[in-house]
Design a protein that fits this description.
- The structure is a single chain.
- The chain is an alpha+beta fold.
- Helix content is 33%, strand content 30%.
- The protein has one domain: 2-Layer Sandwich (Ribosomal Protein S5, domain 2).
- The chain has helices at residues 40-53, 70-88, 139-151, 165-184; strands at residues 9-15, 19-26, 33-36, 56-63, 97-104, 107-114, 120-124, 131-132, 135-136, 154-161.
- The strands form three sheets. The chain has a four-stranded mixed sheet with strand order 1-2-4-3, covered by helices on one side. A four-stranded mixed sheet has the order 5-6-10-7. Strands 8-9 form a two-stranded antiparallel sheet.
- The protein is globular.
- The mean pLDDT is 93.
- Pathway: Amino-acid biosynthesis; L-histidine biosynthesis; L-histidine from 5-phospho-alpha-D-ribose 1-diphosphate: step 6/9.
- InterPro entries: IGPD_sf, ImidazoleglycerolP_deHydtase, ImidazoleglycerP_deHydtase_CS, Ribosomal_Su5_D2-typ_SF.
């Protein structure tokens, strides 16, 4: 039976002249999610992430949406990445690697990641249009780049094919949640830090 560390939680409040972001995260949750960023589509994607990752997640963000959605989306990524790293601690006992593939109708998304401490993002998604409603299709890449930089994760996100932008990005967030859950989960066969360097 898989064992779990206690208190793998993190929270952070960050205020700038552009945004106010508050996030609380429990890595060993049940998928209870409360998200309010003022951006409906983004809220939907973050809810899918929390539910499929089975993370308990609370996000409240207020940003200068009258200017653009960019600041809010990027800053949520930054804070979420930092909170995730805080909740993960030193990473002792984790599986470290995660991989998941999610089909959604005609689209297929695959996410491979390594909680290595080395931030790097590969994002290859063949979006068809410039936006999904008011949500610019450039924003997902900015969000994931912000997350990996603060979380210290290597993350490869690819959609080899798809025709509907909504389907493609929804599949990505679902696959990301499940891959991250896998990588952050405790492996009873792992003793200490899962790296020959002794640190992540």
């Amino acid at each position: 039976m898989e064992t779990k560390q206690k208190n793998r939680i993190g929270s952070l409040s960050r205020t700038t002249k552009e945004t106010q972001v508050e996030i609380a995260l429990n890595l060993d949750g049940t998928g209870e999610v409360q998200v309010d960023t003022g951006i409906g589509f983004f809220d939907h994607m973050l809810t899918l992430f929390g539910c499929h990752g089975r993370f308990d997640l609370k996000i409240k963000a207020v940003g200068d949406l009258e200017v653009d959605l960019h600041h809010t989306v990027e800053d949520v990524g930054l804070v979420l990445g930092e909170v995730f790293r805080k909740a993960l601690g030193d990473g002792a006992g984790i599986r470290r690697y995660g991989f998941f593939v999610v089909p959604m109708d005609e689209a297929l998304a695959q996410v491979a990641l390594d909680l290595s401490g080395r931030p790097f993002l590969v994002f290859s998604v063949p979006f068809v249009g410039p936006s999904i409603g008011e949500f610019d299709t450039q924003l997902p890449q900015e969000f994931f780049r912000a997350f990996v930089n603060k979380a210290g994760a290597t993350c490869h996100i690819q959609v080899p094919y798809g025709e509907n932008d909504h389907h493609m990005i929804e599949a990505v967030f679902k696959a990301w949640g499940r891959a991250l859950r896998q990588a952050a989960s405790i492996d009873p066969d792992v003793r200490g830090i899962p790296s020959t360097k002794g640190v992540l």
